[in-house]
Amino acid sequence: MFALLHFARYVWRVGRIAARNEAFRGLLYLLLITLGLGTLFFSLVEGWSLFDALYFSVITLTTIGYGDFAPQTVAGRAFTIAYIFFGLAIFGAFLALLSELTLEERRQRRQPANPPSEDA
Fold first, then answer.
1. How many CB atoms lie under 10 A from the CB of residue 80?
2. What's the rounded mean pLDDT across residues 83-109?
3. Does an H or E element contain 11, and which?
4. 115: left (phi over 0), alpha (psi -120 to 50) or beta
5. Which residues contact residue 42 at a Cβ distance below 8 angstroms, ignoring those fewer than 6 apart?
6. Cα distances (angstroms) measured from residue 5 to each of 13, 21, 103
7. Is residue 117 very low, low, confident or very high in pLDDT (cuts 50, 70, 90)?
8. Would you state the pLDDT for residue 75?
9. According to CATH, what is the number of the domain 35-66+76-108?
10. Does residue 110 come out as left (phi exceeding 0), alpha (psi in the -120 to 50 range) or beta?
11. CA angle, corner 61, sides to 83 and 65, nearest 5?
12. By three-state DSSP, how is residue 47 classified?
């Protein structure tokens, strides 16, 4: 239960970050579009259910790659090669920016709102 509350707080914090940062929103949208296009492609070309296609898209972009699904068609394999290169670049940039923004927010929370002046 504690882990779920901690995760919910993290998601809330990410939402606040996204509301303030245009680059983060852009990468998030691009990541969601990439996942959506991959899901649609694998569903249509490989004949997988939408859930299976989404599952494959996510485990491919996160480099988990369980191996329980693999494209069988030439078109599916060719698309997967491009999808991995393009998707990993987006996913990597997204994670890097998320880390940077999260650390920046942590630094700001730890700094006092009104630091003592040197004149005092």
1. 20
2. 89
3. helix 2-20
4. beta
5. 48, 52, 53, 56, 57, 71, 76, 79
6. 12, 24, 20
7. low
8. 98
9. 1.10.287.70
10. alpha
11. 110
12. coil
Q: Which residues contact 101 (CB under 8 A, 6 or more apart)?
A: 17, 21, 24
> For residues 17 and 32, what is the distance between their CA atoms, to the nearest angstrom?
17
Contacts of 17 (CB under 8 A, 6+ apart): 24, 98, 101, 102, 105
Both structure tokens of 42: 């694998």
CA distance 10 to 4: 10
Tell me which residue has tokens 């393009």: 86
Tens of pLDDT, residue by residue over 43-69, are: 999 999 999 999 999 999 998 989 999
Kindly state the tokens that stand for 99. Answer: 């880390």
Which helix or strand (DSSP H or E) is residue 82 part of?
A: helix 74-110
Q: Does residue 20 surpass a pLDDT of 90?
A: no
> Which positions ≥6 away from 41 have C-beta within 8 Å?
53, 76, 79, 83
